[in-house]
Amino acid sequence: MLTEKLEQLRTLFREMEQALIAYSGGIDSTLVAKIAYDILGDRALAVTAVSPSLLPEELEDAKIQAATIGISHQIVQTHEMSNPNYTSNPVNRCYFCKSELHDTLKPLALKLGYPYVVDGVNADDLHDYRPGIRAAKERGARSPLAEVNISKVEVRQLSQQLSLPWWDKPAQPCLSSRFPYGEEITVAKLQRVGRAEIYLRKFGLKNLRVRSDGDTARIELPPEQIKEFVLTTDLPTIVSAFQNLGFIYVTLDLEGYRSGKLNQVLNRETLIQV
């Protein structure tokens, strides 16, 4: 089945003939970039959007991965932080982020002669609350992974099969996802939470989040790592480091890390309205 889906992906790009990839450096869009380059060569272009919600370290990873693949890589600036519909952090914040992204990429693709803009949305994403998907579709973007029904697990399996060294790279959504809906997003807050996560990774932690709620930082780790973290880590040192970044309170989420956790406050009626 996986082999069949891989061939379907390749066929899809053969039919496109040219494609611009919305390339974040995450595992999904990197797999798309890899397949696109294998089939299209210099007729494929990866473009990474840079804004305060992207850590500099993530941009460097994207550059390294693109160079490893061999695909041409460009960087553009996006300006979602200038849009109050985004910075006010409503429940459909992601819609305005992806609107800005694709309003930037689509004209670039047309200017450079690429008839298609494609992204890394996978089949699982279609079953989650992802308002940004609608923004991309409204602007004509395609999602090859979703089109051939490739799940997140299969993305990793295919990446490993293709010998991509980052096949087990943790998911790293934009930093704005660290804030509860309704809390204003600022550049300073994004930098603060980003630095906090980089600090924790120095302890060998990979799958983690630092959720920011006002002056409180809430650390989320995989449930199976919580006990060891508490027993073996110098907690006062971590508290001091976070306070130096600007947080006042530092807490540990006892439930543990779970992707999309902040969406649990949403109810069906809210989602229908947006």
Question: What's the count of strands?
Answer: 7
Assembly level: single chain
Terminal Cα span: 36 Å
Query: How are the strands of the largest sheet arranged?
Result: 3-2-1-4
Strand content: 5-15%
What form results from the Cα inertia axes? globular
**H and E string:** HEHEHEHHEHHHHEEHHEH
Q: Helix segment count?
A: 12
| Rg from Cα | 19 Å
Helix proportion: 40-55%
Structural class: alpha/beta
Q: What summary fits the major beta sheet?
A: 4 strands, parallel
How does this structure look, described?
The protein is an alpha/beta fold. It has 12 helices and 7 strands. A hairpin with a 2-residue loop joins β5 and β6 (216-220). α1 (2-16) crosses α2, α2 runs parallel beside α3 and α5 (93-112) packs parallel to α6. The longest helix is centred in the middle third of the chain and has 20 residues, at 93-112. InterPro entries: LarE, NAD/GMP_synthase, Ni-pincer_cofactor_biosynth, Rossmann-like_a/b/a_fold.
Topology readout:
Elements: H1 2-16, E1 19-22, H2 27-40, E2 44-50, H3 56-69, E3 72-77, H4 84-87, H5 93-112, E4 117-118, H6 131-138, H7 144-147, H8 152-161, H9 187-201, E5 209-213, E6 216-220, H10 223-232, H11 235-245, E7 249-252, H12 268-273
Parallel strand pairs: 1-2, 1-4, 2-3, 6-7
Antiparallel strand pairs: 5-6
